[in-house]
Amino acid sequence: xxxxxLPTYARSELAFERGEGxxxxxxxxxxxxxFAAGIAVNSLGHSHPHLVETLIEQGKKLWHTSNLYEIxxxxxxxxxxxxxxxxDSVFFGNSGAEAGExxxxxxxxxxxxxxxxxRYRIIGCQGAxxxxxxxxxxxxxxxxxxxxxxxxxxxxxxxxxxxxxxxxAAITPETAAIMVEPVQGEGGVRPGSIDYLxxxxxxxxxxxxxxxFDEVQCGMGRTGKLFAHEWAGVTPDVMMVAKGLGGGFxxxxxxxxxxxxxxxxxxxxxxxxxxxxxxxxxxxxxxxVMLAPGFMATVDKNARILWNKLxxxxxxxxxxxxxxxxxxxxLGIKCVVPNGEMVDKLRAQKLLTVGAADNVVxxxxxxxxxxxxxxxxxxxxxxxxRTWSA
Length: 390
Ligand code: PLP
Fold this sequence. Notes:
Layout: E1 18-20, E2 23-25, E3 31-34, H1 37-40, H2 49-61, H3 72-83, E4 89-93, H4 96-113, E5 121-125, H5 134-140, H6 143-146, E6 156-159, H7 164-170, E7 175-180, E8 183-184, E9 190-191, H8 194-207, E10 210-214, E11 238-241, E12 252-256, H9 277-290, H10 295-316, E13 321-327, E14 330-335, H11 339-348, E15 351-352, E16 354-356, E17 360-363, H12 371-389
Parallel strand pairs: 3-15, 5-6, 5-7, 7-10, 10-11
Antiparallel strand pairs: 1-2, 2-3, 4-12, 8-9, 11-12, 13-14, 14-17, 16-17
């Protein structure tokens, strides 16, 4: 008999009752160190006092009014995102996939508004993940996730991640944009090099394409800067954001330049829940913490400490770990052993991680971890590696 909950997830049997900082706690009091963080969502850990307080205060005042009316917290969040990024304007939705849908609509509308409706195709990258809607699945082109849902949405091409020559060769008069994760998350924690990201901008400029960065997973402080592309010193025209923006409260956003969204006017897009007072208040609280002086520097410092310790483990256990890769606190252990077994063994050591493609174990802890949590995680990974070496 089919379960009451549609069986779309291969879940572990663990259930948690509460969270404290970087820890998740079961009903019988077992504490797990959470280096999965809801897959890069709980950016400030669990039950962060400022977020909890903000949610409770907003919850007492107002949950939902609809975009029929002004939502002051929405305007404030948009203005803060604009002030701290390349963007001139922001649309709020509820998830990463929705952000992807709007990014695709912006690309098509831009070329339609500027007299080139024939330019509608978007070039994405192999190994990408942009969400589970029909268009975002087509954009990523992963056969495993598309299977059974034909016909696929038209208008997407795919090239190897990191390969500018292949990209240039794939551009046709119908090409409208390039859509890339600066650090591929689900695809196996693969960072685009600084030269690659700079090259993407140059190619987009040369061919009159919009550059869309999907920073749903790698954005919001995850790499030690507010957004990952900042490391390369280039900016996109459109950017998808979600996950860490709400620190656990569902929210998504598309940030864009004025040029990219020049044709947008009332009626061009919408969302019932997008930009609601609860999501906006919590996201503003997340920004309060992330924009405080020193926050990103601390993330960067801790990320480097974790990186070095993981490298030492990789050196010690070459028969278990093939490589450590990633950026900031979006790190991947490419395994020699099966990554699923590693995730299970780490869970047995009370460390929560998440698998990724290419036989990788992803470490995406809350950005608020300190050296004690790093040491605990490294000890757990060390212990798991030892079970293979014994
Ligand atoms: N884009 C990237 C890079 C992601 O990692 C994800 C989710 O993992 C998405 C988009 C989709 O986000 P959501 O699951 O909120 O729709």
